[in-house]
Automatic annotation (TrEMBL), chain A:
<keyword id="KW-0812">Transmembrane</keyword>
<feature type="transmembrane region" description="Helical">
    <location>
        <begin position="36"/>
        <end position="59"/>
    </location>
</feature>
<feature type="transmembrane region" description="Helical">
    <location>
        <begin position="287"/>
        <end position="304"/>
    </location>
</feature>
<keyword id="KW-0762">Sugar transport</keyword>
<keyword id="KW-1003">Cell membrane</keyword>
<keyword id="KW-0472">Membrane</keyword>
<feature type="transmembrane region" description="Helical">
    <location>
        <begin position="244"/>
        <end position="267"/>
    </location>
</feature>
TrEMBL record, chain B:
<dbReference type="Pfam" id="PF00005">
    <property type="entry name" value="ABC_tran"/>
</dbReference>
<keyword id="KW-0547">Nucleotide-binding</keyword>
<dbReference type="InterPro" id="IPR050107">
    <property type="entry name" value="ABC_carbohydrate_import_ATPase"/>
</dbReference>
<dbReference type="GO" id="GO:0005524">
    <property type="term" value="F:ATP binding"/>
</dbReference>
<dbReference type="InterPro" id="IPR003593">
    <property type="entry name" value="AAA+_ATPase"/>
</dbReference>
<keyword id="KW-0067">ATP-binding</keyword>
<feature type="domain" description="ABC transporter">
    <location>
        <begin position="10"/>
        <end position="250"/>
    </location>
</feature>
From TrEMBL, chain C:
<dbReference type="InterPro" id="IPR025997">
    <property type="entry name" value="SBP_2_dom"/>
</dbReference>
<dbReference type="InterPro" id="IPR050555">
    <property type="entry name" value="Bact_Solute-Bind_Prot2"/>
</dbReference>
<keyword id="KW-0732">Signal</keyword>
<feature type="signal peptide">
    <location>
        <begin position="1"/>
        <end position="27"/>
    </location>
</feature>
<dbReference type="InterPro" id="IPR028082">
    <property type="entry name" value="Peripla_BP_I"/>
</dbReference>
<protein>
    <submittedName>
        <fullName>Sugar ABC transporter substrate-binding protein</fullName>
    </submittedName>
</protein>
<feature type="region of interest" description="Disordered">
    <location>
        <begin position="29"/>
        <end position="48"/>
    </location>
</feature>
Amino acid sequence: MGMTQQAEPAVTTPPASGPGMERDGRTKQRPLALRLLARPEIGVFLGAVAVFVFFLVAAPPVRDGSSMANILYQSSTIGIMALPVALLMIGGEFDLSAGVAVITSALTASMTAYQLSMNVWVGVIVALVVSLAVGFFNGWLLVKTGLPSFLVTLGTFLILQGVNLAVTKLVTGNVATDDIQDMDGFDQAKAIFASSFDVGGVQVKITVVWWLVFAALATWVLIRTKYGNWIFAVGGNKESARAVGVPVTFTKISLFMLVGFGAWFVGMHQLFAFNTVQSGEGVGQELIYIAAAVIGGCLLTGGAGSAIGPVFGAFMFGMVQQGIVYAGWNPDWFKAFLGVMLLGATLINLWVSRTATRR
Amino acid sequence: MTTTNDSPVVELRSTGKAYGNIRALHGVDLKVFPNQVTCVLGDNGAGKSTLIKIISGLHQHTEGEFLVDGRPVRFSTPREALDKGIATVYQDLAVVPLMPVWRNFFLGSEMTKGPWPVRRLDIEKMKKTADHELREMGIVLDDLEQPIGTLSGGQRQCVAIARAVYFGARVLILDEPTAALGVKQSGVVLKYIAAARDRGLGVIFITHNPHHAYMVGDHFSVLRLGTMELNASRDEVSLEELTNHMAGGTELTALKHELAQVRGVDVEELPEESDLTATAS
Amino acid sequence: MSRTFLPLPRRLVPAVAVAAAATLVLAGCSSSSGGKKAEDADSGVSAGKATTPRMTIAMVTHAPSGDTFWDTIRKGAEVAAAKDNVKLIYSNDETAADQANLVQNAIDQKVDGIAVTLAKPDALKDVVAKAVKAGIPVIGFNAGMSEWQKQGLLSFFGQDETISGEALGTKLDDTGAKHALCVVQVQGAVNLEQRCAGVEKGFKGKTDKLYVNGADMPSVKSTITAKLKQDSSIDQVVTLAAPVALTAAQSVDETGSKAKIATFDLNKELIAAIKDGTIEFAVDQQPYLQGYLAVDSLWLYKNNGNYMGGGEAPILTGPAFVDKSNVDAIGVFAAKGTR
């Protein structure tokens, strides 16, 4: 918006309040449709719709309800992590350890329960504590040292990768955990983290429900609470936020701990869905989470974004990844297709928001 | 412009600050009274920012005393300073540019409603209050949802001042509010400084422009290289003297001699120390 | 900054306390089934120890870290090393150039023997030649069947991926499969591509290929589910790693597909799945044997001048089939992670 000399506040001696309020006339109200389109989550929504319609036409099996459930499942496992990663990004930080942290959580739960021959819930709780501790460590180191989060979390990423492998090997003698399927509490935990339910003859995974619940919760927190206000503030301008009394340290550390919570949840899903965990998994997933958040309209530099955008970002990712398979395209090109589709969808997103904000 | 003889709200007694073995500030005495504008002048690196940071709670002093309402204090966060009624408006970090005007207005002191698990922002009330308060200060904005970064520099300062006034600040620290502004906008900001003073606030106005300072100031302190060079009230100092102190009269004379030696500059054309008045800024 | 941080731990204390208390409470209810207690406390393979002079052998592989298959190779090597009074230096890197550096590192350490995998033979050519020139005996294993002789290696232990793929393909014909899906968990890995190519060659029916992201199990599951849905004529899934096979079983179950599952490589859970019929059969290349023989043969060469395979032919460690008929015998060892 062009601010020039005419951008002078009108100094009025008696305050003009009341219904017929005066306007300074600079910010002409733009049509509602255009203002809506300018929101980043609308851009990604249209991108997701475009991808969806494309595969609806190109891949007949997608039209089936169970295919949709499968696509949503894939999207949800990305999406649940993309949410806290997006909040963290709005708060101005990155977490490269998010992918392996999922595996750390699953390994912790599985090994604790198995090695001590205890109810799996003990493992689940210990894993939660460990995941939150990893998040706390990331945040604490960041505020303590003032190092960029890229470096701090790259360090944690490598540490966790090594610890995952070494501790698993040390404890189990193998590089994968033992099967905990027959242990007490497994069925209960599976019902919460990895069950599915019937919707009109289609089996829908419970992670889809959790994903949407978490997304609604994150949206509410972000827009409607003090904490949400602080997230935007610490990402937008940390120093100003501190100066007006926003608890910057608390906000940053708690955001990293939220990522820890997400990693715990997805880790528990993986453990109870697949019974065992391989210690080398999870590497590279952090970039997919970050990508979903960025496609979802979160600013890489922090200070702007939404929780609903990453939902569509994750959906777009899941849709493209599975859509290519449903379409039966030559698998050799899989990654290339994936890249092209994502770039295409992101460009639609960009084009929409550019068109909408043009004067 | 009534000067009350109340006790000072904020007082510094030979206060200093050292970062490691670098002494940024040393032996500074300052009294801030309500209903007064105390101007702190100084060149870049004179220690102005260090002074603000101590009073606003971003840093802590390492020598001397810092008193609020006559009691020694030591703030560890800006929050504590705010709780004592000391609000700071920074030149460049007054606001979070990407956030809407109303969110900026209430940032750090949000209004909420509802019991804990569902305690949420009272958006309606905040928007209404922000609009009302801004209009009180004479700022009219159509859309409080617009990012504050889209406002002009002067408007942003004014929003920040209105904000501090609303939140019951007793002492308002303004860090170079006119530095990046044009002539007209500076005038607007100066008007709000006077308005804030007339509402009973003690204002600390940091600037390196003696003209701006002299327009609204009741008391003047000039910092040089971390120490206090001048500490005088309005009736003890003229604009000329103030300007001269700011321009660094003695240093300029020395510089004049050096220039003469280096390039044979015609020093006759340059003004004498005593002439260094309003032309320098 | 550090000061503003103080209130947080105080707020955290109750949370940690609650978690600790919960743990203690839950500790009361230990699992009545499964878990470590239920696992047989069985020691691994062990034998006497050789009295030959202590020697050092470096094992340099292209393995990714945290992979069950490669861990089994390492176990075999470690057992042989313990038996032969050998100090084993194990190192691995997926990147060919870095693997070459690791071989150079072993040369610099003046080891008594090097066992190396030649996944990308050209990248390792120079450094292997250096080792040979330095008089260090080098043997190959697992990957590099076509190259080991050219590069002057003493012996080679492994399985020809194409041959084992073919063997699996031929076996599929016997089971009456018509349309197979070969699931590749890493795109662009030579040995995996060879396995799929082998299956295609040996199998009379149609073979399709599917790439999945092996680092993300939920995505593996979704992708296989999607493929089974897209092409309902698929009646056989062939996976190239044991964990992928177990995940494929879930996909097959979910889609209600009639497809059967065969896989390369083994692990503990897979043995159970073969027993209960979820997985039809597995092709094992006996990774334990590869690691074991690699070390043992270097020891033999050093102490008795023996060449396995006489320096002419590779020693094949596979393919060995594991199905319902022999699973019980093998299962005992797989449970320990050595088979």
